[in-house]
Amino acid sequence: MVYKIENNEGVITFTIDRAEKRNAVNDEVMEGFKEVITYIKGNKDVRFLVITGAGDQAFCSGGDLSEFHQLKTEEQAFGMLSKMGNILYDLATLHVPTIALINGAAVGGGCEIATACDFRLVASRVKCGFIQGTLSITSGWGGGTYLFERGLPHDRALKMLIDSKKYNAKLLYEIGWATSIFEGPKEQALEEFIGDMRKIHPDVHQAYKGIELRKWKESNIYERVMEEIRLCAKLWESDAHNEAVNRFLNKSK
Ligand SMILES: CC[C@@H](C(=O)O)C(=O)SCCNC(=O)CCNC(=O)[C@H](O)C(C)(C)COP(=O)(O)OP(=O)(O)OC[C@H]1O[C@@H](n2cnc3c(N)ncnc32)[C@H](O)[C@@H]1OP(=O)(O)O
Question: Would 113 be classed as within a structural domain?
Fold first, then answer.
């Protein structure tokens, strides 16, 4: 199994469990995301969704480049990107608060998953970044659209996308991407973060999320996400992208 789903008194934790691949997302992980989202939509007792990665090296390293590198054409890429894009849309529009518990690097699509969550708790030693530009593609799962919705100053958000670098935790907090930075065990950081929220009735949480979701729907967020995905799919079939992925996959050979 490449993922784990745990329920601790209404706090659902979804762990991507592929530490040896730095928790890269493949088709099986996508199925796990679908399973946990379906469960939450059908279960009234759920209070929070927490997403994290196994081990301490990575939260998520994005799409599994060794598996998805087989997709060569724009159309093939669009199939994979829109599948995960729809999953992230469902995640971003869930009725319960969502928390990315970032225990290790979050890069590429991993940074998109974290950005689709309401809150990002980042371990102090960790770096995160929209590094897709270094692969000659843009964000392809809708993460760019969510980043512009997260209230960061426009110049910080745009720079994060176009310089395509990994930022340390301090900088992630300064620009407004990280909600908080933690030292020590991630479980303790999570408990501290949700302690006060737990005391509030879940209907209140859901009402506030509803306010944000209505605004998003009025501004056609789904269409904007799909447009972002189409742009990435176009770039995916370029020689520059192919060469960059080959370089990554052959780096240790
Ligand atoms: C497809 C969607 C697109 C999007 O919409 O955004 C993307 O997500 S594109 C993918 C972007 N991601 C990357 O480019 C990831 C690059 N990975 C890294 O930069 C690093 O691995 C890391 C996450 C910073 C961790 O570094 P480190 O701890 O030094 O580990 P290694 O680099 O040695 O990796 C260990 C092991 O894992 C494999 N790996 C890592 N990331 C991926 C990945 N995304 N897909 C497939 N495999 C990955 C890496 O190849 C190593 O494997 P072995 O050599 O077999 O041990």
Answer: yes
Band of residue 251 on the pLDDT scale cut at 50, 70, 90: confident
Provide the whole-model pTM.
Answer: 0.98
* Spacing, Cα 240 to ligand 1 middle (Å): 18
Residue 211 lies in a domain: no
Q: What does DSSP say about strands 98-102 and 58-60: parallel, antiparallel, or unpaired? A: unpaired
Q: How many Å apart are CA 192 and CA 186, to the nearest integer?
A: 10
Number of domains in the chain: 1
Which residues constitute the domain of residue 81? Answer: 3-185
Supply the residue whose CA is at minimum distance from atom 53 of ligand 1. 21
Predicted-assembly ipTM surpassing the 0.95 threshold: yes
Residue 84 vs residues 24, 116, 157, 160: alpha-carbon distances, Å? 13, 12, 22, 21
Q: What is the CATH number of the domain that holds 139?
A: 3.90.226.10
**What pLDDT, on the 0 to 100 scale, is given for residue 253?**
57
The one-letter code for the residue type at 192 is E
Pocket test for ligand 1, best of 26, 59, 61, 248 (most atoms within 8 A of CB): 61
Cα 246 to ligand 1 centroid, rounded to whole Å: 12
What is the mean predicted confidence (pLDDT) over 80-100? 98
Whole-number Å distance, alpha carbon 245 to ligand 1 midpoint, is 10
